[in-house]
Design brief:
Layout (H helix, E strand, L loop, with lengths): L1 H6 L4 H4 L3 E6 L4 H20 L8 E4 L11 E3 L2 E2 L2 H21 L4 H4 L8 H15 L4 E5 L17 E6 L7 H4 L3 H8 L9 E3 L6 H18 L3 E3 L27 H15 L9 H6 L3 H9 L7 E4 L4 E5 L10 H8 L7 E5 L6 H16 L5 E7 L11 H17 L4 E5 L2 H15 L7 E5 L2 H11 L6
Parallel strand pairs: 1-5, 1-6, 2-5, 6-7, 7-8, 10-14, 11-12, 11-14, 12-13
Antiparallel strand pairs: 2-3, 3-4, 9-10
Helix pairs in contact: 3-10, 3-12, 4-6, 8-9, 13-14, 14-15
């Protein structure tokens, strides 16, 4: 990665001109990045003015929902098409020139063979944009793992704090088949002399201890002061104790309390509001008003998102693991207005352990609503926006799987398979029209991952972000 940086005209010393909150983990990285960004933007605006360099906050996250521009944001907003295109071609030309200087022919140097692969290119491009716009505060999300991730070229001087969110089974072909192995990779972002915060939470005490042991060992190896944040279901209200409570539904459910604490502790450390002698609870109570305001204003697309149309309500969440889909149950429980109301499910997940994720999702519905017939229709789709896939064998296999287990998971549910998201949305609209009852708008839950939700948003909001 340092070689590619050099070809782009940068060194790690250039990266140290910015201070990064570096975020790894399996679940909730995006939530932590969004919260941290919102808090920093508000804080910088209150102390430096919207036009000052100090007020600008850069954010680099992945994957995107609709457009790659979402990955590179300034003050919480995706960069414009003009900024994105200009940065892309500036780097393209730099890589081309570097390849020619290294002996490659001009014709070959002009092609993609002289360029880094997609994620590495965009990572360098994010730093290029941030440096060009005079940004000093950056919230940066790891792509995969940590130890060997492109973002981990950051030197210790460039990192103000490291964060590791709860670790689940994640990219197991690359990171290993156990959570302890995965934890080793995530902890690769630890830096000497840089404080780190993490939360370890598992249904198994044995697994929790195994992860903790790895993280503690890696922290010692890297010379990192590691703080374990206890798992919390949510934060207390901003009452007579002074603690914070976000009045935002999307942050209320399982694990998210710990994610909120991780984000707040990271921002405190980044701003120099040291908490060495404070408990986590005490640290949370002593937050500047602007930071609290930013916390409460944070918005995440594709996370407990509700889009209301005239005759239908779309519920979108990018949950993509057996653990993360379990929170669908309590969310849907809050959404439904009557004890017999049903939901249409559009599900797409083409990479991970789909059967286990889908089973966990449907069981969560049944367990929290105390009935099997929550789902009126299940539509299994590929996450292609349009076009005809060569086959839907995976979706048909899931349909068969659900059919065989329907007695355990749901009753009287219609199961369909569709070749793309546009067809799935059309089927959901037809199912919603058929089940409409009185003034209650039918609800459609779309989940299965970022690609699923992104494809759905491109169908529902084709003009939203090109």
């Amino acid at each position: 990665m340092e070689t590619w940086l050099k070809r782009a005209g940068y060194t790690t010393e250039d990266l140290a001109r910015m201070r990064h909150i570096h975020v790894a983990g399996s679940r909730g990285k995006g939530s932590v990045c969004t919260l941290a960004t919102s808090m920093l933007v508000r804080h910088r605006a209150s102390s430096g003015g919207s036009s000052s360099k100090e007020s600008k906050v850069g954010t680099y996250t992945s994957p995107h929902l609709i457009s790659p521009r979402e990955r590179i944001a300034i003050n919480g907003k995706p960069v414009s098409q003009a900024v994105f295109a200009e940065a892309f071609f500036e780097l393209w030309d730099r890589f081309t020139k570097a390849a020619i200087n290294e002996g490659m022919s001009a014709s070959d140097a002009e092609t993609a063979t002289s360029k880094p692969y997609f994620f590495r290119f965009l990572t360098i491009m994010a730093w290029h944009v941030f440096l060009k716009h005079g940004i000093s505060d950056v919230v940066m999300e790891v792509g995969i793992g940590g130890e060997y991730d492109s973002t981990n070229v950051l030197p210790p001087e460039a990192v103000s704090v490291s964060v590791i969110t709860p670790i689940m089974y994640d990219h197991i072909t690359m990171l290993g088949g156990s959570r302890a192995e995965i934890a080793w990779h995530k902890a690769g972002i630890f830096k000497p002399g840089v404080r780190a915060f993490t939360c370890v939470d598992s249904e198994s005490k044995q697994v929790t201890k195994a992860i903790q042991d790895v993280l503690i060992s890696r922290a010692k190896e890297k010379g990192t002061d590691l703080t374990m944040v206890p798992s919390q279901k949510g934060l207390n209200t901003k009452d007579n104790t002074g603690a914070i409570k976000p009045d935002i539904r999307k942050f209320k459910h399982s694990f998210n309390g710990a994610l909120q604490v991780l984000a707040i502790m990271a921002v405190r450390e980044h701003l120099g509001l040291k908490s060495d002698t404070m408990t986590v609870s005490e640290a949370l109570q002593e937050m500047p008003p602007a930071v609290i305001q930013g916390f409460e204003e944070a918005q995440i697309r594709g996370v407990f998102e509700v889009i209301e149309e005239k005759d239908i309500i779309w519920l979108l969440d990018a949950a993509h693991s057996t653990g993360s889909v379990r929170i669908m149950g309590p969310w849907i429980q809050e959404i439904l207005k009557s004890p017999d109301e049903q939901v249409i499910l559009v599900f797409s997940q083409q990479v991970r352990e789909t059967k286990a994720i889908l089973t966990s999702l449907v069981r969560s519905m049944k367990d929290f609503l105390k009935r099997k017939n929550v789902l009126n229709t299940i539509i299994l789709a590929r996450n292609d926006v349009e076009g005809q896939a060569k086959n839907v064998e995976r979706e048909d296999a899931l349909k068969t799987f659900l059919g065989k287990t329907s007695g355990k998971l749901h009753e009287g549910c219609i199961i369909e398979a569709r070749k793309n998201m546009a067809d799935a949305i059309m089927s959901a609209r037809k199912a919603a029209a058929a089940m409409k009852n009185g003034n209650t708008k039918p609800k459609v839950l779309i989940t299965g991952g970022h690609r699923c939700v992104g494809a759905a948003l491109r169908v529902l909001e084709p003009e939203s972000l090109s």
